Amino acid sequence: MDILISGASVAGPSLALWLHRAGHRVTVVERAPTLRGGGYAVDFRGKVHLEVLRRMGLLDAMRARATHMGDIAIVDRAGAVKATLPSAIFSGDLELLRGDLGEVLYAATREHVDYVFGDSIATITQDADGVDVTFERGAPARFDLVVGADGVNSKVRDLVFGPVPQRSLGVYGCIFTMANEFGLDRAGLMYNEPRRTVTIGGINPEKAVISLFFTADGVFTADGLEHDRRDVEQQRRIVADAFAGTGWKVPRLLEAMRTAPDFWFDSTTQVRMERWSHGRVVLLGDAGYAGGPGGNGTGLAVVGAHVLAGELGRLPFERAFEVYEQRLRPYVATCQKQASGSSDFLVPSTEKKIAQRDRFFRTIRYLPPVKHLFRHLATRTATAFDLPDYGGLGHTRDLSGNRGNVL
After folding, report:
1. Residue 21 in contact with residue 396, Cβ under 8 Å?
2. Do the strands 264-271 and 196-202 form a parallel or antiparallel pair, or are they unpaired?
3. Could you report how far apart the first and last alpha carbons of the chain are, in Å?
4. Across-strand partners of 192?
C-alpha cells in the first residue's frame, strides 16, 4: 500500500520503519523544515519498551546515545541537599536526548522512506478506495491509508475527527539547554517552591538541560495563560513571569532562557478519544492518546507503532485498526491514570507537600530492598502490557548486523 504518515517525531518514523519492512511504500510529511532536535531527555522503561526497541533493531544504537544520568539531589535555597531522587524515577532503563532519538530513527529509515520536510497536510478527503490529500506546499496525492502521528495538536485529528477537547493536567513548563556552569556531570539538582519546580541536569561537562515547571493556580488566571503556540517570545515572558521572585539559581536560568535556541514550552495535557480511526485514517501516539507527564509517552509511541504495523500485516486495514485499538486501549488507560496524579509529585503546591515528598525519599532509601522497589515504581505502568508476537515482523537486524531477539 501507499501510506502517508503525518509527523516525523517518534511515532511516525517508528511506524515507517515497520511498514517499510512489511513492503509498503511510505511517505512521512513533517511541518518543521528539518529534523526536529530538542535537548530534553526522553526515556524507555521496562521489558515491554526495550523489547520493541530490540525488535526494531535499534536498541544498541540508542544505548550508544544514552545519557547515563545519575541521581538528582533535591536542594534548598542555599543549595544544601535535602533528599535524593534515584535516577530510575526520572531516567528509566534507557534515557537519551530527544534530538538523539530522532536522529537514530531517521538514520534507520531515511534510505527507504520518502521524507518531506517543511510541509503539512491541508485537506483530507477519503472514499471507499483511497484518500486524497492536499498539502500546504506540495502537489496533491492519493494514498491508501493516512496516519496522524503529529502530536498533541494533531492537524490530521482536527481535519478528520473535528475539535477534540484536551484534558489539561494543570502544569505548564519549558525545557532548554545551556552551558553547564554547575559542575554537574551526569547528575542533577532540583529546587522547589510552592507551584514551581526547577531541575538542572548535567548531561555532560559542557551541556545542562534546564526544566522549569509551574502550575497556573496562584500564578496566573486562566486567561493569562492563553498563548500562541508559535510565539516563542510570548512563551518566554510567561515563564519569566511565573518564576519572578523565585530564589536559588533561578535568576541565572531565566537569563539563559531568554536566548536559548532550543527553548520548548507547552502545557501538560491528555488526549482521550472514543475512537482512534475513521475510515482509512488512523491516529498514533500523542495525536490519539497523549498520556501526559509520567504517562510513558515515548514508550507508548513505539509500542503503538509496533502493534499498528503488526495488525496491518495480518488483517485488512479496517479490522487491523479495530484490533490495534482493542489491544492498546487498556494500556493507554493505565498510563493516563498514572499521569493524572503527576502534578503533586512534579510541582507540589504547598511547602507541606514539598516536605512530605522529600521526607518520603529520605526515608525510603533506608529500606533493604530499595533498589528493587524503585525499579518497580518506575516500570510498573510501562510493563502492564502483553506485547504481541507478530512473527516475521519482529525478526530484525540491529545496526551492527546482529539478529535481534524475538519474544
Report:
1. yes
2. unpaired
3. 28
4. 197
Q: Above 80 in pLDDT, residue 365?
A: no
Q: What cell numbers appear for 392 in the block?
A: 516475521
Beta bridge partners of 135: 121
Q: What is the Cα–Cα distance from 394 to 306, expressed in whole angstroms? A: 9
Cβ density class 269-287: b for 16+ within 10 Å, e for less: bbbeeeebbebbbbbbbbb
| pLDDT class of 376 with cuts at 50, 70, 90 | low
State yes or no: pLDDT of 218 exceeds 70. Answer: no
Q: Which of 89, 278, 231 is nearest to 239 (CA)?
A: 231
pLDDT tens profile 64-114: 999 999 989 999 999 999 999 888 777 888 999 999 999 999 999 999 999
And the C-alpha cell for 189? 539538582
**Pairwise CA distance, residues 370 & 44, whole Å:** 21
C-alpha cell at 369: 530492598
What is the pLDDT, as a whole number, of residue 371?
60
Alpha carbon of residue 302 to chain centroid:
10
Q: Which of 337, 281, 285, 279 is nearest to 307 (CA)?
A: 285
Residue carrying the nine cell digits 488566571: 221
Q: Region 30-56: what's the mean pLDDT?
A: 91
Q: Write out pLDDT tens, residues 346-363.
A: 899 999 999 998 998 888
CB of 42 within 8 A of CB of 98? yes
Partner residues linked to 264 by β-bridges: 175
What is the phi/psi pair of residue 37, to 5°?
-95, -135
Place of cell 492498546: 328
Distance of alpha carbon 43 from alpha carbon 289, whole angstroms:
18
pLDDT, mean of residues 167-195: 93
* Confidence check: pLDDT of 221 > 70: no
Angle between helices 317-340 and 297-312 (to 10 degrees): 170
Which among 5, 108, 2, 22 has a CA at the least distance from the CA of 57?
Answer: 108
- C-alpha of 331 from chain center: 16
**Ramachandran quadrant class, 77 (left: phi over 0; alpha: psi -120 to 50; beta: rest):** alpha
- C-beta separation of 146 from 4 below 8 A: yes
Please tell me the number of Cα atoms within 13 Å of 141 on its side-chain side: 20
Contact by Cβ (8 Å): 141, 116: no
pTM: 0.90
Q: For cell 531516567, what's the residue?
A: 91
Q: Provide the 3-class DSSP secondary structure of residue 226.
A: coil
